[in-house]
Design a protein that fits this description.
Layout: H1 4-22, E1 26-27, H2 33-44, E2 52-55, H3 59-64, H4 66-71, E3 77-78, H5 88-97, E4 103-106, E5 110-112, E6 117-118, H6 125-131, E7 136-142, E8 146-147, H7 150-168, H8 175-179, E9 197-198, E10 207-212
Parallel strand pairs: 1-10, 2-3, 2-4, 4-7, 5-8, 7-10
Antiparallel strand pairs: 5-6, 6-9
């Protein structure tokens, strides 16, 4: 029998799904990571003609196993944009190629209760893929990313997700790595450079969003 907490999240996630759908995103709800993977493979993937795919950085997406399935699909050319063995020039060239794939997958830093996607990027390859280029976009997002409004979304990203992301990447020298706080720095390694807000999906359904009933990612 569902607990009070279960009921709370079921209601909140369904409300989020409806808000996203009203903004012309194709929206689903998954109860866990396994369900998200199955939903993608059984419901979303068969509807799409995908011959090329790539991704933007997302801990949540990685945890689903969806990328493993795509990499093993002989009919899909997967562009690897996070190859530690490749030069910086090669990686950047691949990230540009990734803007022209059939399917781009990533996560979102925040989702508002009004159904807006809010993201902050260092380079812009992830946010660029969301806003324009790839024919289809799939975003997987944990319930912990749902916030009341744009102000809370930006606060969450700047003062929580961004410092955590800086800390998890070795080699970046930003003040927030040392303090855990955003000071709106001018560091050459600053990761907070580009703020796209996706109010609606255009064309309708191009961006598909899977909120997951679990706390995931940063």
């Amino acid at each position: 029998m569902p607990t009070t907490v279960d009921r709370f999240w079921q209601l909140r996630l369904e409300s989020c799904r409806k808000a996203l759908a009203s903004n012309r995103f194709e929206a689903f709800v998954a109860q866990d990571l396994h369900s998200a993977r199955r939903l993608f493979s059984e419901t979303i993937r068969p509807q799409l003609d995908v011959r090329s795919a790539s991704r933007g950085d997302s801990m949540t997406l990685l945890a689903t196993g969806i990328l493993d399935d795509l990499r093993q699909d002989a009919g899909v050319s997967f562009i690897e944009t996070f190859d530690r063995g490749a030069s910086r020039e090669t990686v950047m060239a691949r990230r540009r190629e990734a803007l022209l794939v059939d399917l781009f997958l990533t996560g979102s830093n925040a989702v508002t209760e009004a159904g807006q996607l809010v993201n902050l990027d260092m380079v812009g390859n992830r946010t660029g893929g969301i806003t324009f280029g790839p024919r289809h976009v799939v975003i997987v997002v944990g319930r912990n990313k749902i916030v009341p409004d744009l102000a809370r979304a930006m606060e969450r990203v700047k003062h929580y997700a961004a410092p955590l992301n800086a800390i998890r990447h070795e080699g970046w020298q930003t003040p927030c790595r040392k303090t855990g706080r955003c000071i709106d720095c001018n560091s050459p390694h600053r990761i907070c450079n580009t703020w796209p807000i996706a109010e609606k999906s255009y064309p309708p359904g191009r961006i598909k969003v899977i909120p997951v009933n679990a706390d995931l990612g940063l």
